[in-house]
Structure formats: C-alpha cells, structure tokens
Inverse folding.
C-alpha cells in the first residue's frame, strides 16, 4: 500500500472499531473532525498525560505483537493518570504508520488499545494518522478528571511517612531479559510465561490511586515506569526528603527468584532498576498506615508491601539486613 | 550524544524555555510530573486537537529550519482550534528526537514553537520526550475551550448559505513548489520570498473563528489544511449539501500569479488542491452575509472573499465564467 491508501484504511479501521464502542455522552462531536468537543464535569480539574512509544526503542516486533503494543500504550498512560488519583476519560492517538504493514496488523493494534481503554471506560475520541516511513510510532494523550483541588502529587511526602508498593517489582524487566536472550535460562514453563506476560502485557492496580485520594490516605505517589530507584528519586527530589528502603522488604515474585538463580543475576538488580512494572509506590503518614493497608488489601485482593520510610535529607537509600545504608541514586530502566 | 543524554538535555531545554514563560494560574502542577493538572473554566466545553509532523513527510530539513518547524507545528494545531471557534489554552508535546542533532537545533525548535504558542497565550504544560532514532517526529496536543454547547462544526452548512474564505489560497503550495524545484522560475525576489514564507511559516486568521462563533455569524467552518477541494468536501459530506465555487472568485495572490505564469502551472491548481494555507473557509446564511463581511474585514484588516454558495445535493463543484459546473471532488494536498 502507499501511504495515502494506508491512511484511509486506518481511518476506516478507527471509525469501525471506535463506533462499536459505547457512545460517550461527554463527547459532543465525533472523531471525523479535526477537533473534538468534550464536556468535563463542573467540579473537577483535568489531569492530562502523554506517552510515546517508538518501534525498536520501546518495543521490538521480533518478540511482541501489535495487540500487546496497543495494550501497553494504554497501560502506560492509564497508570500515570491512576497514580495521580485521576479517573481517565478520553484518549487521543497520534499514529505514525508504516505502509508495508498489513491492515490486520493495525486492526490487532486497535483491538489491544481499545480493550484496555474500554475496561476503564475511556473513549478514543480523536487524533492524527501520519506516515512514519520505516519506524512505527504511537503518541497517546489521555485526559481524565480529579476532584477539584485534589490530586496525588510527588511533592508531599513527609519525614516519618511509610513507603508502600502495590505489587512485586522487577517482573517486567525479568520478562524483557528472557525475551532478549535467545538462550532461555532453565526455568519451568509457568514462571517463564508469567515473566514474559509481565513485560508484554503488564497489569496495574486499577482504581488504587483514586481510592487513596478519595480517602486521603497517601501523601505522595508515583507509578513504577522507570524503576523503583528512579521513581522514588522523583518523590525525594520533589518532596525534599530522603527515602530508606529495606532491602529485605522489596517484593520479589517467585518466578523472578527462579530466573535470577538460573541466570545468575541478583533479583534486586531487576527489582531496583527494572522499569515498566506499573505498580504504584506511595507514601502514607504513620498514623494512617494501618488503614491504608486495609484499604489497599481490599482493592488489590492481597496486602500491599511496606518497603521503607521517609526521612529528612536527600536521595534514595537501600538498608541491608545489618542496617547499613547504600545510596542507590537514579539507576532506573532506560529505553535505548 | 547518546539518546539518554540527549533526552536529559532536552528536558533541561524545555524546563528553561518553559519556565521563562508567564506562569499560567490554570496549571496546578508543573511539567516535571508524568501528569499535569489543569483547571478549565466552569461554563466551558473543551476543544481538543492533535497534529503530528514527521521528518521527510511533513517537512524537509534541506529547506526548512527547526524554528519554522516549531512554528508550523503550533500553527496547524492553533488553526484547528481557531476554526472550531475555540480559545487555545494548553499544549502537550510528544517529541521524537534524533541524538545526532545538536542542542542548538532543539533550542531553536522550542523557540519557534513557544513563540507561536505564547502569542495565543498557550502554555506548554507537559508531554513526553523519546528517541526516534533516524527520523524526527513531533506530536502536539492542544487543549482549548469553547462556550458550553457552542462550537463551529462542519455539519451545519445549509442550502442558500454563502461560502467565504479569509485569505488567498495556494500560496503555501506555491512556496513548496519553489522549495522543491532546484531551478527557480524567474520571478522577482519579493514575491518569491512571500511564497516561501507562506509555506515555511504560514499565517492564519487569529481570533476569526472565535469572533464568528461569538456573534453567531457562521453555520459551518473548517481550516484549509488539506486544500480547498478536500476541506470543502468535508463540509459537504458532514452537512449533506453541495458547494458551488465560482472559479473567478477564488482569491489568488499576485505572487502566486507570477509564479504560475513563470512555471506554466495554472494558479487554480495551486489554489484548489494546495494545502497548509491555514485560512478559514466558512458558510454564512444569506441574511447575515453583509454583517459577516463587516466583522471579518475589521478583524482581518481587509475584506474576506466570498467564493460561492451552498445548495442541496452532494459534492464540490467549480463554476466557470460561462456557468458550467465541474465536480472537483477531493483533490487535496497529500503529504507523501
């Protein structure tokens, strides 16, 4: 196909896939226009995020599928809105296409993207479709709402606060390790599948940020997109505090332990600098620690992990079993 | 530079350039977070658009500069919001960078982008910066407001309405023709410069759409991004009408006439299928035609051009001096 006929085909696919969605009463004009008119709730602020994904940088077609690319594009944006305590509502997609890919490829991408957006009640309401020549790219803008004047920021962690994380860390990085190594370390099939899924189609704690915001149970929060050390570093920098993480408290899944052993990589290396886990890290004042555990447990259907505490100072520190501190700085996962 | 150090440099540039802007009271958190919190006006709907630009597809670095790329990226989005009658407020930028370009290149891009956004009071409030490897891309999302329940759509042109355009057509396409042809047709320096500027740094009728909406003077409107024939075709299709354009009434600038003569291309070919003029085409009921001319003249500081009328039917037609109709269909400018 040439790029014009690809573009027209893509617009057809979008119209078909999108019109099969429940119509959103808050969308006043449809996707065919250059602009979309949206009606926010009166007593709400907007929360907006934008994440891009580039072929060969954020994903590799030798080991992922268009369906999973669509899902992960949605997840990385939904996770940002979620960690801010927001409710996602509308998405706009910038799609840089390759003309040498089939219609089926893009249909599968849209099925993935829309399956994730739909689950959260988000409508794909607009965007732009352009030729990207030899390298696919996607740019998703997600618009949501937070109660007026309320949102979870990175800037309000206070000394004494406890640090929690919603789930195990490093699984996504472990999955990537498996996908990138042609010779798979000898681990059983199920853990292997679990880790690979953690990278290709990571889950995230849907609704947790909003619940923490509604009940005023978190002083700060962030999603783990760049890795525990980098993301906590953002909280430290913005809140002007330091974070102490108990090495032994960092949640590591059984599959990741198996992989670490087989591959001779310390599990902590995956967990500390691995990105794209899309769990939420948050801080809670000590007198609310019991309550936040109860609330998060109910929502997550398992307890959250308390991994450390906030102090006066600067930087992110790991505390080993003998109480020795080691600064871990900003070692997060970096896209090539 | 490698892509990580480029990314950090870029974030530095963004922070510096953006913080030198007037702070927006409607922005609650700053650009350092994954999300931005924005406060819309109570009695407004949102109007949102997104346009992407790709190196070698929408611009060519052999004849444009990063400054002009930034300006045009802003213009194409501002023009969409303007044609909908909206007031632009906030922008988010997806930047796909090349590591082999200098810091000065990106500084210049941001200067261009911000100069255009600033002029309209728009704040660059967020976005994402990623490696694009060998081909730059930009994805801008622009969010604005319209009065609740009111906006200029493409769907409400009615038989009998007059068709107006805010300025001459085809100049941008003429400029592109000059830029793409190594052997320049023999036309004087000033018309040549005018046409090249029309392509590299097109102007647009700032505020016109909003004025037409406020005074309820337009039944439909669209900006000329793809060319007169394609853009009018959108109005026809959405409004279920046909448009008759008087061939002799299509505004052609003197520089474009000079170029057409020297290059042996009919000026109408530039004007009808040339895109990126960013003028507004709109329709007005006949009893408001005099008033809309007055209002537009005042704002544009010259009269708008009345180029035709709306009838029952389908399609876009050109009417020659003998009254003969010719369907011109959807011949607009297409990016390669």
């Amino acid at each position: 196909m040439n790029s014009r006929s690809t573009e027209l085909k893509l617009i057809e696919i979008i119209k078909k896939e999108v019109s099969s969605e429940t119509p959103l009463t808050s969308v006043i004009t449809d996707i065919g226009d250059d602009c979309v008119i949206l009606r926010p709730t009166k007593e709400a602020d907007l929360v907006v995020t934008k994440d891009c994904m580039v072929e060969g940088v954020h994903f590799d077609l030798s080991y992922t599928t268009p369906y999973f690319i669509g899902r992960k594009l949605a997840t990385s944006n939904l996770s940002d809105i979620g960690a801010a305590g927001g409710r996602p509502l509308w998405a706009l997609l910038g799609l840089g296409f390759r003309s040498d890919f089939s219609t089926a490829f893009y249909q599968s991408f849209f099925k993935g993207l829309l399956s994730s957006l739909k689950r959260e009640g988000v409508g794909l309401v607009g965007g732009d479709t352009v030729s990207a020549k030899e390298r696919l790219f996607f740019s998703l803008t997600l618009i949501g709402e937070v109660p007026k004047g309320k949102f979870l920021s990175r800037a309000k962690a206070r000394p004494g606060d406890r640090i929690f994380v919603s789930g195990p860390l490093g699984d996504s990085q472990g999955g990537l390790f498996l996908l990138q190594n042609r010779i798979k370390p000898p681990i059983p099939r199920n853990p292997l599948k679990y880790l690979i899924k953690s990278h290709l189609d990571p889950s995230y704690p849907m609704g947790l940020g909003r619940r923490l915001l509604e009940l005023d149970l978190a002083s700060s929060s962030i999603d783990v997109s760049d890795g525990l050390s980098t993301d906590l570093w953002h909280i430290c920098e913005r809140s002007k505090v330091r974070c102490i993480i108990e090495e032994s408290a960092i949640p590591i899944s059984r599959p990741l332990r198996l992989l670490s052993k087989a591959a001779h990589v310390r599990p902590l290396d995956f967990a500390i600098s691995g990105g794209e886990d899309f769990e939420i890290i948050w801080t809670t004042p000590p007198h609310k620690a019991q309550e936040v555990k109860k609330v998060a447990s109910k929502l997550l259907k398992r307890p959250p992990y308390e991994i450390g505490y906030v102090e006066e100072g600067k930087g992110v520190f790991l505390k080993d079993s003998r109480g020795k501190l080691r600064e871990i700085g900003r070692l997060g996962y970096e896209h090539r």
